[in-house]
C-alpha cells in the first residue's frame, strides 16, 4: 500500500506502522509530498513523524479509532458490501430533516439512528440532513469543532457505521446529506499546522487564523478540502453536502474555492449518474451563491434562507433582540416579502449590521428550490441560552401555523429533529472536551456571553455536564401521546399534500402571491389554485379572500388545524384563533 503526506516544510518524514519505522521519500512529481510503500490491511494503525518529531495522525486519515490525537487506521473502502442499488434523489420536491446522530437517540450512534429512519419515511421525509460527523475530542458534541476532515467520529460508529446508516436510508428511499465544515477546525486535536500552511494570518475569523484558501500553499489546501468533499460523496454514497457558514470562507482568488467545489461535484454527479447537491449556509443574502456558473454565479444548488426563518420567528414569538430587530417592526410584512422575494435584506438597511445588506433575487429566473425554508434549526435552537424549542413557548396551534407556512411555502422545507411532534426536550450546547483548560474557557465564555444579555450565569447549562447532552436527546415516547400525536399527524398531512399537489412544489417563485393584515395577525399565501391561510392571533379572524373566487358551495378545505369551512359567497374566510387552513379553488 502506498502512504503519502504533504509536508512541504519538513526536512524528513517517517512512516510509523506496527511493523516499525520506514523513512519516506520525496515525490519527484509533486513538490512537498512524501511517499512510502508498506504492507497494510484494513484497521492497521499508522502515523507520520516529521523531522524526528512525535508520531502524528494522517491529515487524510479515514479513521481515528482512538480520537483525533491517536494514530490513524487504514480503511478498505471496498470491504463494505452495499445492499441497496441507489439512483439518487435531487432537491426539487424534497422535504429535509436535520438530524444530530448523538442526540437523535439516547445511544447516539449511526446504528441506533438507522433504527428510527422508518419514522421519517412515515412522516414523508425525502432527505436526511446529518450534522457533522468528523472526529472531535471526547464522545459527545455538536460536531462543528471537528478535525480530521476525511474521517468519521468513532463513538458514532466510525466509517462502517456511516455506511450502514446511508445504506439503510437508501433502502428506505431516503437521500442523505452531510454537513461539512470548511471554514474552521476545532481548537483541540488539530495537527494540520504541523504539516503545512493549512491556515494563514492573511485573514482572521472568529475562530482565529483563516483556512488558507488564497495565500501561498493554498493550492494544496484547496485540493485537501475538495478531496475530502468528493470522498464523502463517492465512498459513502452520500447525496449531497451542507456547507457550514460559507460567508466565513476568506477567499480572494478570482476562481473561488466554492466554484471549484461546485464544478467538481457536478462532474462527479455526471460520472456516477446520480444527482448530487451542495446546500450552503450563507449570511450574505447573495443570490449569486446559487446562480449557475454559466450565468456568472458560484453554482451551489441551494442555500438556507435565514431571512425567512427570522421573519417567521418574530411573527410567532414577538422576539426582537439581536438580528430579530430588523424583522420585528412589521413581522408579517417581512414574512410576506421573504415568501415572494426570498430575501428580506435585498439591498435594504439592516439595523443589526448598521449598513445596507443583501442583493435582490430575480424571482423570474431563480427557482424556489434554490432556497431552504424552516422554522427551527440546530443553530436557532441550540444557540439560545437554554436551547429551548418553539414548543417551549408556543401553543400547539401556533406550532401548527409554523408548520403550514414552512411545508406549503415556496422553498424546500426542512424540519429539525423532533419538531414534527413539538418535542419538549431542549437542544442545548454541549461539549466533551478532554482538555480541562479548554473546557473551562468554553463554559465560562458561554456564561459571560449570556450574562451580558441579562441571564444569571448559574442558569446557563454547563456544556461539559453530561446531563446537558442527556437533556438534549429526543424522547421517543412523546409522539405517542397528546398533544404531540395530534401535531405529528398534522405534519404528516401537510407533507402528504406537498407531495401530492404540484402547486406546492412549483418552483416558480414569481407566481407566489401573499396578503396579510399586520394588526389582525393573519397572512394568506397563494400557490397556484391553492391558498394557505394562517391566523396567528388569539382571536378568530375574518379574512377576505375575494368574492367570486370561492363561490357559495365552492372551494374545498384540504386540511385544517381547527374545523373551518370554505368561504361563502362573500369570499370571507372565518378562521379560528391560532389556526390555519389549506384551501383549493374549484
From TrEMBL:
SUPFAM superfamilies: (Trans)glycosidases, E set domains. It catalyses: hydrolysis of (1->4)-alpha-D-glucosidic linkage in 4-alpha-D-[(1->4)-alpha-D-glucanosyl]n trehalose to yield trehalose and (1->4)-alpha-D-glucan. Its main location: cytoplasm. It is an enzyme of class 3 (hydrolase). It comes from the Bacteria. Keywords: Carbohydrate metabolism, Cytoplasm, Glycosidase, Hydrolase. Residues 98-498 form the Glycosyl hydrolase family 13 catalytic domain. Its EC number is 3.2.1.141. Signal peptide: none annotated. NCBIfam families: trehalose_TreZ. This is Malto-oligosyltrehalose trehalohydrolase. The lineage of its organism: Bacteria, Bacillati, Actinomycetota, Actinomycetes, Kitasatosporales. The gene is treZ.
